[in-house]
Design goal:
The protein is mostly helical and 496 residues long. Helix content is 68%, strand content 1%. Among the domains are: 1-34 and 388-496; 43-64 and 196-337, no CATH class. The protein has helices spanning 25-34, 44-52, 68-75, 84-96, 100-120, 125-137, 144-154, 159-171, 175-188, 193-218, 220-223, 231-239, 244-265, 267-271, 282-300, 307-320, 323-336, 341-349, 357-370, 374-386, 390-403, 408-420, 424-437, 448-461, 467-477, 485-495; strands spanning 5-6, 40-41. Strands 1-2 form a two-stranded antiparallel sheet. The two termini are 42 Å apart.
Length: 496
């Protein structure tokens, strides 16, 4: 997933309280508010792009899933006990019920059996795709490029595999390698739909990284001049001139670039803790209006399935700041397919810049009920935290730990929750688990989040404020790159 971090507000600490530690409730409030949830990835645009270009058009409606009871009954059939899809469905059903620990053995069995099949036939791409899906389910993205590189060495002429390798290289930010694989895939089979799925994602990742670099190195003026690199998508259009998806892909890429421009142009306000509307202005607004007309023209041609156009209009209206029209477009898309998680993720995302978490939560709940992916569930836990619903936030993180027990960000989140509730002993317990996850390759002393959480827990339990504590707070307060800078500064004023 893309690594554009969302910046959430750290609540300002109260001024003018006595410089003493935990003498009354007001002092513990100051420490509670210094705790901040781990940063969350804004994966909305990447997931939107992926779903916009799945090789098959979305159905008019998604058939209702079988109940857990029906799945378990089917599992009793000896012929189906190693059915990978069935085992994954059982895991998913338990997960939806908030009982991932009961479903995980089925997922583990599916994974073990898939690995066994793959070892017996390492040229079976369908099995490798199943393995990849399960690895993504438990948050193990980093290992996937290596798996697919080995497969491509065995099957060098398969464009589908090259495109899949490029996809995972993109998601681990290996853009140059992904570009080479994508070019090879085009040479092997320019009409393979997997290629233009990855082509759009390549354009998206490249735009995201270039826009970020231009903003940092050249400022907003140069950022506004940014132009997309559309060579892969234009090549796809030449090879598939009549394919609606390719024409839509070009519009999607342009819409995605506009999203990043609008986001980065407004990011200074976001960083400064000022709520704002994610709304296009000037040239970006003109470009959005032109795109809007293109999408509306597509609708007038009465396409066989207008779902994707309505879905794009949801994002477009969000960027225009016209949330009522976005809701209307969502309703039109929902009438065709009410089981598309991205619709709800996009609408929930629209309320994040204004800090309207209470409005975002229902949409993220709907999205994760449809597709309980790790990143979105983690984002939902973040929203619960910011909305002061610590019990629900904790429940989501505990569920995620069942399938990703080595993910230290989950432990960071739990530590932040417990610090917010004056449960310092429980916070220290999570921090101890956190430290145990680090190997020799990961320097715990360099993890600033861990250091700050550990400091807060110890600080809260100290009998008095000490000079060494003041020195550490000053270091954080002077660190321009620390997301705890403001909190540390307020603690300095509060206690020293």
């Amino acid at each position: 997933m893309i690594r554009t971090a969302l910046l959430f507000v750290i609540l300002l600490l109260p001024y003018g309280l006595a410089a003493q530690l935990l003498r009354d409730g007001r002092d513990s409030l100051a420490i509670r508010q210094a705790a901040a949830f781990p940063e969350v990835n804004a994966s909305i645009i990447l997931s939107y792009n992926r779903s916009m270009l799945e090789p098959e058009l979305p159905p008019e409606a998604v058939a209702p899933e079988r109940s857990l009871e029906e799945l378990l009954l089917a599992y009793e059939d000896p012929k189906l006990e190693n059915d990978i899809d069935l085992l994954i469905d059982i895991y998913q059903s338990y997960y939806d019920l908030g009982q991932p620990e009961k479903g995980f053995p089925y997922l583990q069995k599916a994974y073990n059996y898939a690995v066994e099949l793959y070892e017996a036939n390492p040229s079976n791409i369908e099995v490798l795709e199943d393995i990849s899906y399960m690895m993504l389910t438990v948050g193990n993205l980093e290992s996937l490029p290596t798996l697919w590189e080995a497969f491509c060495q065995r099957q060098p002429k398969l464009a589908r595999a090259r495109a899949q390798l490029a996809l995972y290289q993109l998601q681990t930010f290996q853009l140059e390698k992904a570009e080479r694989q994508l070019d090879t895939a085009y040479q092997l089979d320019p009409r393979d739909p997997n290629i233009y799925v990855t082509a759009l994602l390549f354009t998206t990742y490249q735009a995201m990284m270039q826009l970020s670099a231009q903003r940092e190195n050249y400022g907003l003026e140069e950022l506004a001049k940014f132009e997309l690199d559309l060579r892969f998508l234009e090549r796809a259009q030449r090879e598939n001139p009549q394919v609606l998806r390719i024409n839509l892909a070009l519009k999607t890429a342009q819409l995605t670039a506009l999203f990043y421009k609008v986001f980065f142009m407004e990011l200074d306000q976001f960083s400064a803790k000022k709520p704002f509307q994610l709304r296009a202005k000037g040239e970006q607004l003109v470009a959005l209006k032109a795109l809007e007309q293109d999408y509306l023209k597509m609708l007038k041609t009465a396409p066989e399935n207008p779902f994707l156009i309505h879905k794009s209009l949801v994002l477009l209206y969000i960027l225009k700041g016209e949330l009522a029209l976005a809701e209307e477009a969502l309703g039109q898309a929902e009438a065709i397919n009410a089981f598309d998680a991205d619709l709800y993720k996009m609408m929930g995302f629209a309320y994040l810049p204004e800090r309207k978490y209470h409005k975002a939560v229902p949409y993220y709940e709907r999205a994760t009920a449809i597709a309980p992916e790790f990143e979105e569930l983690f984002a939902l836990a973040r929203l619960y935290f910011e909305n002061y619903d610590y019990e629900k936030s904790e429940k989501v993180l505990v569920q995620l730990l069942q399938t990703a027990p080595d993910n230290y960000k989950l432990l960071e989140g739990l530590a932040a929750i417990y610090l917010r509730q004056d449960q310092y002993a429980k916070a220290r317990g999570q921090l101890k688990r956190f430290s145990q996850l680090y190997t020799e390759d990961l320097n715990l002393g360099q993890n600033k989040d861990y250091q700050f959480y550990q400091f807060l827990a110890n600080f809260a339990l100290s009998p008095k404020a000490e000079a060494a504590q003041e020195k550490r707070l000053k270091a954080w307060a002077e660190d321009r790159n620390s997301r705890f800078r403001e909190a540390a500064g307020q603690l300095l004023k509060q206690f020293f």
